[in-house]
Every structure is written in structure tokens, then in C-alpha cells.
Design brief:
The chain is mainly α. About 75% of the residues lie in helices and about 0% in strands.
């Protein structure tokens, strides 16, 4: 494979990670204890998919940082902030996956209270990812709008994605209503912002793989 092919593949890992995240999260529970006991194999399969999604997300961060760094120039301070935000969110996803894996490992040997506690820890552990994702998307938006890393339309979308992430803090504060970990504002809005932003950036990077100039320089 040529360098351009590898660059395209690296850029596409963002889209791959979003696809695997969607499939993996689509399998998760509503009835905690019974679900973990009855659907152990399905949950473990979902965890494998989420682990793969995490791998591709981390790989995508490398491709994204490279593109941002080229566009920003200089010391690359904002590009470094974006990369650091992505790494922090990847760490939070790692904790989330690990806790869910623990709950699904021997569900028949644990009391409902223990399973519920581990499940709740997994849900709450995902909330700190909002700090990393907010920094990631806000920094990407700045490099897009100021330095032309992406088009102004994509820059605006990234800014909206950054604004959507803090709503996930509701998962740490309540277990019911729109701001809960399964609510419209506490889950679906931040997740939608994440998915759309990563897909759009991944697609833009795939399209211009092999080019050295930023999107806004032409």
C-alpha cells in the first residue's frame, strides 16, 4: 500500500470507530440483573466490538492530530489540546468498557445489588469523557475556523458538538428524566454530537488524503 492509502485508512478509522460504538452500545441493558445473567454472551460480544471501536478511535486521533498540526503550524498548541482531549475521553471509555466487562463476567455469582453498583459505576464513569470530548471538539473547531483545517461548515458543526458534550454531566447527577444517563439530553444529544463530528472529520480527511494543504487554503 502507498503512503496515501495508509493515510486514507488512518482517516477512515474514525468512521469505523463510530460504527462499532453504535453496534456495541445498541446491545446494552435496560433490566440490569436479569439482562446480565440471560444475555451474558451478547454483552461480551458487544464489549469486544466496543474494544475494537476504542482501538480505531485512538488510531484516528493520531491521523486527526497530524492534520490539525499541519493546518495550525507554529507550536501546535491547540492541536495538542485536541489530541489530549481525545486521549482523556479514550481513557474514560476504557473505564466504561472495563466495568461493564466486570459486571458481565460472572453475573450468576453476584448479588443484584453488586451488579447494579457495577453497572451504575460504568454509566457514571462515561460522564468524565465529556471534559475530554468538549476539549477535543472545541479545539478542532478553532483550528478549522481559524486555520482552515476543515471547512467553516464543519468548524461550526464541531463547535455545536463541543457544546453538546457537557449535557452528559446529568448522568452523574440523576437517574431519571432528560438529563439521566439514558435521557435525551444526558445521553442521546452528546452521543449524536460525538458520532456526527467524528464521521464528518473522518470523511473530510479521507477525501483529502495525500494532500498537504489544509482544507481552507484553496
Amino acid at each position: 500500500m502507498s503512503d496515501r492509502d495508509w493515510e486514507r485508512l488512518g482517516a477512515a478509522t474514525g468512521a469505523i470507530s463510530v460504527l462499532l460504538f453504535i453496534i456495541g452500545f445498541g446491545i446494552f441493558p435496560t433490566e440490569i440483573q436479569a439482562y446480565y445473567a440471560d444475555e451474558q454472551s451478547g454483552i461480551q460480544a458487544a464489549l469486544v466490538l466496543l474494544t475494537g471501536a476504542l482501538f480505531f478511535f485512538i488510531w484516528f486521533l493520531g491521523s486527526l492530530r497530524s492534520a490539525l498540526r499541519v493546518a495550525e503550524g507554529g507550536t501546535g498548541r491547540v492541536s495538542s489540546i485536541a489530541f489530549a482531549g481525545g486521549v482523556v475521553s479514550a481513557g474514560a471509555f476504557f473505564a466504561f468498557i472495563t466495568l461493564f466487562a466486570g459486571a458481565a463476567f460472572h453475573p450468576d455469582e453476584a448479588t443484584p445489588e453488586v451488579t447494579r453498583a457495577i453497572n451504575d459505576l460504568a454509566v457514571v464513569s462515561g460522564a468524565p469523557a465529556l471534559a475530554g470530548l468538549t476539549a477535543l471538539f472545541a479545539a478542532c473547531a478553532k483550528v478549522a475556523l481559524r486555520y482552515g483545517a476543515f471547512s467553516s461548515a464543519i468548524g461550526g458543526l464541531l463547535a455545536l458538538a463541543a457544546l453538546a458534550q457537557p449535557f452528559a454531566v446529568g448522568a452523574m447527577l440523576t437517574d431519571s428524566g432528560a438529563f439521566a444517563g439514558d435521557g435525551v439530553l444526558g445521553l442521546f444529544l452528546p452521543v449524536a454530537g460525538f458520532g456526527v463530528a467524528i464521521l464528518v472529520m473522518s470523511g473530510a480527511l479521507v477525501q483529502r488524503a495525500g494532500r498537504t494543504e489544509p482544507a481552507g487554503s484553496s
